[in-house]
Amino acid sequence: MGKVVVPITVLPQIGARRGAVLQALVDTGATLSMVPETMLRRLGIRPTDRVAVRLANGRVVKRSVGEARFRIDGKVVPSLVIFGKPGDATVIGLVVLESLGLVVDTRKGKLVKGEILLLPAANL
C-alpha cells in the first residue's frame, strides 16, 4: 500500500468557522495527529503540555501538544495535536481516525467509514 494523503481542516475552537486547510498523511502507526507549529500558532492554538513521543526510528523526544479540532469529510472532532517542527509531516493519527469512525481502505488507498467499537460494561 502506498501513502494515503487526505485534505483536512484544522480549527482552533468550538464554533470556529475558519481554519487551515492542509494535506495530511494518514499514519495508522501514530497515536496523535501532528500539524506544523507555525500553523497552529497562527490559528491561536497554544501548547497546553509537553509529552514524550517515540519516533519511527525509536528515538524519544519531547514535543508540545495543544487542543485542536479536525474536520475530515465534513465531520469535526476535538483532539490533542502535536506541534510539528520544521521538516515534520502533517499527520492524522489514530485518535482522530477512530473518533471519526474512519479506517484506511488499503485497496483504494483512501479513508472510508468503519465501525466504532465498544465493549459494554456488562461484559467486563
What descriptive keywords fit this protein?
globular; about 120 residues; mainly beta; two-stranded antiparallel ribbon; Cathepsin D, subunit A, domain 1; 2 helices
What would you give as the CATH superfamily? Acid Proteases
**Percent in strands:** over 45%
Multimerization state: single chain
> What count of structural domains?
1
Strand segment count: 9
| Structural class assignment | mainly beta
What is the CATH topology descriptor?
A: Cathepsin D, subunit A, domain 1
Could you say which overall geometry the principal axes of the C-alpha atoms support? globular
CATH architecture: Beta Barrel
Termini gap:
37 Å
Taking all Cα atoms into account, the compactness measure Rg is 15 Å
Order of H and E elements:
EEEHEEEEHEE
Which class in CATH terms?
Mainly Beta
DSSP helix fraction: under 10%
Number of helices: 2
Arithmetic mean of pLDDT:
91
Largest sheet: 7 strands, mixed
Which stretches are low in confidence, meaning pLDDT under 50 for 5 or more residues running?
A: none
